[in-house]
Amino acid sequence: QQRDKLRQYQKRLSLGLERERALARQLLKDGKKEKAMLLLKKKRYQEQLLDKTENQISNLERMVQDIEFTQIEMKVIEGLKIGNECLNKMHQVMSIEEVERIIGETQDAVEYQRQIDELLAGSLTEEDEDAILEELNAITQEQLKLPEVPSEPLPERIPEASPVKNRPKPELVAAS
């Protein structure tokens, strides 16, 4: 608001300066040098006020920018505060001791499984492996049961099919 008021004040001063300059010219034409000189002094004073006003506006704008930046910083700090609170709550739920315990249990379980794998892999002898392969082949053979093949040799010629007696021929049936 102050910045806007200062801007309005600057406009009024600028308009007044132009009027006074024009009036000083007129006074010089009329031969009133003393009054023109006084008017130019007043104009000079107002120009200095205009410069001071410009500096004040500049200071106000810098202050407004500082305030806006500070507000942004406050929002960032508030966000960091909320983030820290969330992290603290999460840390309360999961403490370092709890994490170390879980990691230890996981490592123990992995080691236990490795020992089981070693026992299973190392305890089978060659005879056991052969027995396992035989059992696998037997199961495979059961699943692939094929029909039995006759053992006697096949005849060399296939006898022709004997015609059926007393059966009418198709063209005779259609003709009657």
From TrEMBL:
One of its GO terms (biological process) is late endosome to vacuole transport via multivesicular body sorting pathway. It comes from Pachyramphus minor. Belongs to the SNF7 family. Its main location: membrane. It holds the Pfam family Snf7. One of its GO terms (cellular component) is multivesicular body. Residues 144-176 are annotated as: Disordered. This is CHMP6 protein. Residues 28-70 form a coiled coil. Keywords: Coiled coil, Endosome, Membrane, Protein transport, Transport.
